[in-house]
Amino acid sequence: MATTTSNPEASVAADAVGEDGVRRRDFIEIAAVSAAGIGGLIMVYPLVSQMAPSADVLAESTTELDIGSIETGQAIKAVFRKQPVFIRRLTPEEIAAADAVSTDSLRDPQTLAERTQEGHEDVLVVMGVCTHLGCVPLGAAEGEDKGEFGGYFCPCHGSHYDTAARIRKGPAPTNLAVPEYTITDTTLVIG
Ligand code: FES
Question: Which residue range or ranges hold the Rieske domain (predicted)?
Answer without folding.
Answer: 92-190
